[in-house]
């Protein structure tokens, strides 16, 4: 017997990630802002690869670019690169313990920062401050609660029986 899974979780989780990326933070905490879209998209690429692929990542990145006012296509490129790597290693990553998954996601987020730095260098924008490299650490620490929350919602564990 298959259980019906709520279809609203994916779009609502991505909308929440987009809104969290728009949330104002004090200047001191700005460098620690996690890349919410990447964290939530990583979950969906790992757990529902048929629903979240490269095209989906590209469109989500364009929506993120429009919402945040960043260079058009920057987040699209970043999310496509991350999704490609996740798809390549998905079979192994799914069975990692949570601590190793968090380290792998941290590595992907660090790779994302390298892509951002390369884009800024290519378009002639000023170099990013050293604190800019702290955000992957925040994402690494947030991965377990994000994963568990989305898993609970996706699998319907929030319903009382």
UniProtKB/TrEMBL annotation:
Residues annotated as signal peptide: none
One annotated GO biological process: regulation of cell shape
Pfam family, one: MreD
The species this protein was found in: Vulcaniibacterium tengchongense
Chief localization: membrane
Gene Ontology CC entries for this record: plasma membrane
Protein name listed in UniProt: Rod shape-determining protein MreD
Membrane topology of the entry: Multi-pass membrane protein
Transmembrane segments: 55-81, 102-124, 130-150
Entry keyword Cell membrane: yes
Homology family: Belongs to the MreD family.
